[in-house]
Amino acid sequence: MSFKDYIKDRYILILVNIIMFFISSIFFILINVNIALVLTIMSIWIIALSIVILLDWIKKYKFYSGLLEKLENIDKKYMIPSVIEEPDFIEGKILFDVINEGEKSMHEEVKKYRLSQEEYREYIEMWIHEIKTPISSSKLIIENNKNEVTLNLLEELEKLEDFIEQVLYYSRSNTVEKDYIVKEFSLINSVNKVIKKNRKAIRNKRIKIDIEEFNTTVFSDTKWIEFILNQIIANSIKYSKGINDCIKIYTIQKENNTMLIIKDKGIGIKKEDLPRVFDKGFTGINGRNNEKSTGMGLYIINKLCKKLSIGINISSKVNEGTEVSLIFPKSKMILLEN
Questions:
Q1: Backbone dihedral angles phi then psi of residue 26, each to the nearest 5 degrees
Q2: Is the Cβ–Cβ distance between 190 and 222 less than 8 Å?
Q3: Is 335 a residue whose pLDDT tops 60?
Q4: pTM higher than 0.70 for the full model?
Q5: N or C end: fewer C-beta atoms under 10 angstroms in the chain?
Q6: Which CATH number fits domain 183-335: 3.40.50.300, 3.30.70.20, 3.30.565.10, 1.10.10.10?
Q7: Are 304 and 176 in contact, with CB atoms under 8 Å apart?
């Protein structure tokens, strides 16, 4: 609040004082009061009024300029009520009370929203666990009645399972810390589990899997890592060219991290699509050509990697293949701090 703005806001008070100043001066002159005394009285009046206005402006200037400065410097604007002190003038007190009431109302609404989101998440998880039972039963029936039709049904059920798993991990992606156990585990074991899970798709497409032997251990949550690996490897299989294509999996050791590389020789990703592959719902030209693509897989794993403090990079060239790198920090403390 500049002094000019303050004066503009108080112009009625100042105008009334000016009018009263002239009326009083004329009145004193008409009743024959000594002109020197009139000037003295008017001077005292002007000085007193100026001091009152100046002191009031200084007090309000400090409060409002401090408020604006804090608002500008604070990242989370909604926390402004917690960093300002209650002023000692009435307009400031009213503003202070309004801001605090607004904050209380916001906290109540956020609490209600979080509760509803938690209830929705719990319902989704319950629904997913319930639907897994008939799927498992259907797979068992198919295993006992194998023919061309039932095997096709089995393939569709497995795809359905993958989509359900995506929904489950997406629903949990905002609350990873509630279902996250950091421990040291063998990376090769997790890779082999995921390869085994996808063995049918690998066999159907006649893809070669080249895994370099590595005895690397990393710190993370095995369940979440295996989901991430499954999404990456499933994509490599889906977008492979077919017979004799190869998916190579290996690690690179660095001073502060371990890199797991999953490299395929599939159809690749267009250069203009690469910056957006982690965007929610983005499918790119490959996804549009593949009606089964949802554009959610890479979005979910990127979100999970951020939560797990794992780096993820993708490089690709059309018709040459795609390389996905997962970067695991070697220090367990980095994971715990985040």
A1: -65, -40
A2: yes
A3: no
A4: no
A5: C
A6: 3.30.565.10
A7: yes
